[in-house]
Amino acid sequence: MRKEVAFKAVLFSLFSILCILVLIPFYAIALASFKPGEDLVRNGLNLSFDLGRMSLDNYIFLFTGSHSYFTWFFNSVFLTIVQVVLTLFVSATVAYGFSAYEFRGKNFLFICVLLIMMVPFEILLLPLYKLTNDLGLMNTYSAIVLPGIAGAATIFFFRQYLSGIPREIIAAGRVDGASEYGIYMRLILPIMKPSFAAMAILNGMNSWNNFLWPFMVLSNSNKYTLPIGLKTLLTPYGNNYDLLIVGSFFSIIPIFILFMAFQKYFIDGMTAGAVKG
User: pTM, whole model, 2 decimals?
Assistant: First the structure.
């Protein structure tokens, strides 16, 4: 009994320390958002708490100043929602095909999915850019959404999740006269809620923080996403650190809301299939 209590105490202490280490950067950027931008240039991000240097000026400028921050913000919100919804639906459909049906070349195609997971995006950057240009999709949101609409990692995750669902559910649906489409929409998708929650958070974070590919294909500043827009605040001719720091801190809020909305299912989705009974 004592060993068990000691083990839990050590485990609690360990995770408490890890939690503090993770929260320190958020605390530093939260403090910096209340300080003048010149402090960031002079001292960098730090944990000093000086009430004499802190004010709401940065937040007042964020909400009332003349800038394009909220244009970039809502562009990112729109793209993230569209990309997450389409990626989850398309990837889940592909994964269901791999899990529920037997067809020629199934194993070969799934190996191709695994191989795609091993290829860094930077290797695909140049041919993908040429293809996007040839299709006339440059400077459009379609160029951002379409390349990742069937994510290899998301397909793999959904396929592994579906492999733990009893085949009798599909067979029962067919006996009851449901179509293949009806089985998928009415029986399978509701069961996949935990996996959808886990992948919504991970894909949402990737889409929200995506910088390189949108930076390559977007040229109209009114279509910039938030990471690109914040990058434009740093120029050789002057840096707007006041907006940069408060805008960076404010950009954390959507991801925080996304996690809080789906945290109920997140652990279930990530651990599904870990224990077979």
Answer: 0.85
